[in-house]
Amino acid sequence: MAAASMMPIFSQNVSSKSDLVPDWTRQEVSTGTTIMAVEYDGGVVVGADSRTTTGAYIANRVTDKLTRIHDRIYCCRSGSAADTQAIAEVVSYQLGFHSIELDEPPLVETAAHLFRASCYRYREELMAGILVAGWDRRKGGQVYCVPIGGMLVRQPVSVGGSGSSYIYGYMDSNYKPGLSKDQCLDLTAKALALAMERDGSSGGVVRLATISEKGVERRVLLGDQLPKFSTH
Amino acid sequence: MALSNVLESPASGFNFDNAARNAAFEGLFEEGHPPKPMKTGTTIAGVVFKDGVVLGADTRATSSEVVADKMCAKIHYISPNIYCCGAGTAADTEKTTDLLSSNLTVFSLNSGRNPRVVMAVNILQDMLYRYHGQIGANLILGGVDCTGNHLYTVGPYGSVTKVPYLAMGSGDLAALGILEDGFKHDLELEKAKELVRDSIHAGIMSDLGSGNNIDICVITKQGVDYIRPFQESEYKDTRKPKYKYRPGTTPVLTKKVVPLKLEVVEETQQRMDTV
């Protein structure tokens, strides 16, 4: 992991093979994850699973990876839990300050650029893959992808995290421009369920949120409410 | 913030002042094996119940395979309404919680109110993230404030999780099994204490790094009940740290008295100045 490899060589070795403390307690907490964001006419739908792992142990099975940055801007976090929480707090502060200065709700593009600025500048030290999504008056619903390394690109639909590799095919074949809000919610729920089925680092419940001019609507799909697929 | 930090705000970046010292240290020992730091290979747990928060911990501190301390106190005081259980490197948890406690005391004196749990969590997260995992402290913070009853965990890399029940330390797998099975929202006090006791007990039974007694700390709006020990280990040590014998234990066989004649050679008086 990028963060672990940055530790200086002369750091104290607090553990050894003969130690009573198991290996996974020393691993960094990671949101090995599946996250997704889709634009529709009038807003965006964001979704994430709820599993946070420390090595092979699930540290939190009900994590909320959809973090509020501003009233109508949310971010989906993947990668190191500590890094993404820290970045989200910094950007949240910067955006809040900016919004007060302008006396206007901030643009999603601004939030995305702030994320990119932090992620690119400290790219060697951080491990953070973030999807920024929200609604503003100028461009409506927008999704921006800021993966590890600090790239910034706007996409109508984007997936991220370790579980995303399993659902690119599903996304490519099932997404069409011009879907309605409910179709987007359905698409997101199914995609996340499929990824959680196949990826060991994703699981738990599906958290969904819809962001539009009216505000934010949050929903949770518990285990028995998840979309089901054939179990051949 | 000016209110909460007595110490000057830290310089940006990491402080690796001790790294050179550690490197020199390693050279002093044969084969470069310096003594390993004492870890509280541990079971700690916390549960939010109807009227507050219950925290529990075992009392064993290990240094590799040796039990270094049988009555270690792992539930640390942060403020009158917040307590913190620590797992990981013993020195790190002690010092981190001490630092937090003194910062929050200054805040309390400045503002005239008890700190909120979320404040303590933010300060901890800030500090631990800055040190990027070099401070090996896994902390469970529990407390009651004007916004309600809260339980948080902060990891050594600075990640924060807020959940109604938690277990940390090397015995956390066993403890979490008990908690997952027995937890319900809005438990009564006695049930909550029993649940935490059972979970720590499971950790003690299943983990070599945890053992000895169980401490429980109950925090409610009315106050704090720190029960140490809540349950003592069945394997009690009958050896005493101090040995005092009753006069007459050793039989006297013979007695010889030799008076020493003393003469007064010089007598001086020193007056003390009392204002």
Automatic annotation (TrEMBL), chain A:
<dbReference type="InterPro" id="IPR023333">
    <property type="entry name" value="Proteasome_suB-type"/>
</dbReference>
<dbReference type="InterPro" id="IPR029055">
    <property type="entry name" value="Ntn_hydrolases_N"/>
</dbReference>
<keyword id="KW-0539">Nucleus</keyword>
<dbReference type="GO" id="GO:0051603">
    <property type="term" value="P:proteolysis involved in protein catabolic process"/>
</dbReference>
<comment type="subunit">
    <text>Component of the proteasome complex.</text>
</comment>
<comment type="subunit">
    <text>The 26S proteasome consists of a 20S proteasome core and two 19S regulatory subunits. The 20S proteasome core is composed of 28 subunits that are arranged in four stacked rings, resulting in a barrel-shaped structure. The two end rings are each formed by seven alpha subunits, and the two central rings are each formed by seven beta subunits. The catalytic chamber with the active sites is on the inside of the barrel. Component of the immunoproteasome, where it displaces the equivalent housekeeping subunit PSMB6.</text>
</comment>
<keyword id="KW-0963">Cytoplasm</keyword>
<dbReference type="GO" id="GO:0004298">
    <property type="term" value="F:threonine-type endopeptidase activity"/>
</dbReference>
<dbReference type="InterPro" id="IPR001353">
    <property type="entry name" value="Proteasome_sua/b"/>
</dbReference>
<dbReference type="InterPro" id="IPR016050">
    <property type="entry name" value="Proteasome_bsu_CS"/>
</dbReference>
<keyword id="KW-0378">Hydrolase</keyword>
<protein>
    <recommendedName>
        <fullName>Proteasome subunit beta</fullName>
    </recommendedName>
</protein>
<comment type="function">
    <text>The proteasome is a multicatalytic proteinase complex which is characterized by its ability to cleave peptides with Arg, Phe, Tyr, Leu, and Glu adjacent to the leaving group at neutral or slightly basic pH. The proteasome has an ATP-dependent proteolytic activity. This subunit is involved in antigen processing to generate class I binding peptides.</text>
</comment>
<keyword id="KW-0865">Zymogen</keyword>
<dbReference type="Pfam" id="PF00227">
    <property type="entry name" value="Proteasome"/>
</dbReference>
<dbReference type="GO" id="GO:0005737">
    <property type="term" value="C:cytoplasm"/>
</dbReference>
<comment type="function">
    <text>Component of the proteasome, a multicatalytic proteinase complex which is characterized by its ability to cleave peptides with Arg, Phe, Tyr, Leu, and Glu adjacent to the leaving group at neutral or slightly basic pH. The proteasome has an ATP-dependent proteolytic activity.</text>
</comment>
<comment type="similarity">
    <text>Belongs to the peptidase T1B family.</text>
</comment>
<keyword id="KW-0391">Immunity</keyword>
<keyword id="KW-0647">Proteasome</keyword>
<dbReference type="GO" id="GO:0005839">
    <property type="term" value="C:proteasome core complex"/>
</dbReference>
<dbReference type="GO" id="GO:0005634">
    <property type="term" value="C:nucleus"/>
</dbReference>
From TrEMBL, chain B:
<dbReference type="GO" id="GO:0005839">
    <property type="term" value="C:proteasome core complex"/>
</dbReference>
<comment type="function">
    <text>The proteasome is a multicatalytic proteinase complex which is characterized by its ability to cleave peptides with Arg, Phe, Tyr, Leu, and Glu adjacent to the leaving group at neutral or slightly basic pH. The proteasome has an ATP-dependent proteolytic activity. This subunit is involved in antigen processing to generate class I binding peptides.</text>
</comment>
<keyword id="KW-0539">Nucleus</keyword>
<dbReference type="InterPro" id="IPR016050">
    <property type="entry name" value="Proteasome_bsu_CS"/>
</dbReference>
<dbReference type="GO" id="GO:0005634">
    <property type="term" value="C:nucleus"/>
</dbReference>
<dbReference type="Pfam" id="PF12465">
    <property type="entry name" value="Pr_beta_C"/>
</dbReference>
<keyword id="KW-0647">Proteasome</keyword>
<dbReference type="Pfam" id="PF00227">
    <property type="entry name" value="Proteasome"/>
</dbReference>
<keyword id="KW-0888">Threonine protease</keyword>
<keyword id="KW-0378">Hydrolase</keyword>
<comment type="similarity">
    <text>Belongs to the peptidase T1B family.</text>
</comment>
<comment type="subunit">
    <text>Component of the proteasome complex.</text>
</comment>
<dbReference type="InterPro" id="IPR000243">
    <property type="entry name" value="Pept_T1A_subB"/>
</dbReference>
<dbReference type="InterPro" id="IPR024689">
    <property type="entry name" value="Proteasome_bsu_C"/>
</dbReference>
<protein>
    <recommendedName>
        <fullName>Proteasome subunit beta</fullName>
    </recommendedName>
</protein>
<keyword id="KW-0963">Cytoplasm</keyword>
<dbReference type="GO" id="GO:0004298">
    <property type="term" value="F:threonine-type endopeptidase activity"/>
</dbReference>
<feature type="active site" description="Nucleophile">
    <location>
        <position position="42"/>
    </location>
</feature>
<keyword id="KW-0645">Protease</keyword>
<dbReference type="GO" id="GO:0005737">
    <property type="term" value="C:cytoplasm"/>
</dbReference>
<comment type="function">
    <text>Component of the proteasome, a multicatalytic proteinase complex which is characterized by its ability to cleave peptides with Arg, Phe, Tyr, Leu, and Glu adjacent to the leaving group at neutral or slightly basic pH. The proteasome has an ATP-dependent proteolytic activity.</text>
</comment>
<dbReference type="GO" id="GO:0051603">
    <property type="term" value="P:proteolysis involved in protein catabolic process"/>
</dbReference>
